[in-house]
Amino acid sequence: MDAPAEPYPYASAEQVDPLVRRVLAHNPSAFTYTGTQSYIVGSGAEVAVIDPGPDEAEHIEALLATIGDARLVAICCTHTHRDHSPAAAPLSARTGAPIIGCAPLTMDDDGPRADAAFDASYRADRVLADGETVVGDGWTLVAVATPGHTSNHICLALPESGVLFTGDHVMGWSTSVVSPPDGDMTDYMASLQKLHDREDRIYFPAHGPAIEKPRQLVRGMIGHRRSREKQILKQIGEGHTRIAQMVPRMYKGVDERLWPAAGRSVLAHLIDLDRRGFVTPVGEEWLPAA
User: Ranges for the Metallo-beta-lactamase domain (predicted)?
Assistant: First the structure.
């Protein structure tokens, strides 16, 4: 999906639901779309911020202005890539609010990244397990564990509005990056199915537009990944057994600068196919399982 025409509404609050306002961070890129969208939940005396975004003064001031006289009772992060969580610490220092949400995770990837690296500074005052809640004035946030994009990724449901804040797990403008070793295709597919089985009304992702037909989109995403599996198995069957051979054939028409990132996705699929008994690695080759 092409990005909408500028100017984007940076450093200003948009009311996107009676209980939700959105503030867009000024960090657009090929992997963040127009930027990271932070959400302020609550319309009463207590509010929460979801995915506070990058540590940029303009964005933090915009969040504080949106919070206004309300008390910030929780700063929630869906995961710890650097376009999502670094503003949590300075926002906590300014307000005294606890950082609540995903677990800390810092690691080095073993290949070219297609998204932001991990935030080594992230510290959580409280880690939310699947189904645990954060409660404020007129609202409830419920953690939905969704590993795959990262092992520590969570979504947050707002049952009062039927909203699910999906972070990077489901986005309307692009599929999520799944890059080993932390990105895991087996977990990602299970997490997609988990969301498909829910009945959320609308998704608010960290990047891109709201998703108004969530189950339809998730069903399509599952189908897309299964189609990629079939492509990979077809490539192997034709004797293209190395990732470097598969990518140019599978991603014709895609900017070659994105091929290294595409290779990470292919690797994630191959690891999953190995676990399921379809392929086996032999050196740098991937062969049909015996």
Answer: 35-207
8 Å CB contact between 204 and 156 = no
Residue 53's nearest CA partner among 168, 141, 170, 132 is 168
Q: E strands, 78-153, where?
A: 99-101, 126-127, 133-136, 139-145
Residue 243 confidence (pLDDT) above 90: yes
pLDDT digits (tens, 9 = 90+) for 165-207: 999 999 988 888 899 999 999 999 999 999 999 999 999 999 9
Identify the pLDDT of residue 126: 97
For the domain made up of 223-288, give the CATH fold.
Answer: Arc Repressor Mutant, subunit A (1.10.10)
Intra-chain end-to-end CA distance of the chain, in Å? 40
pLDDT at 113: 45
Amino acid at 89: A
How many CB atoms lie under 10 A from the CB of residue 154?
A: 28
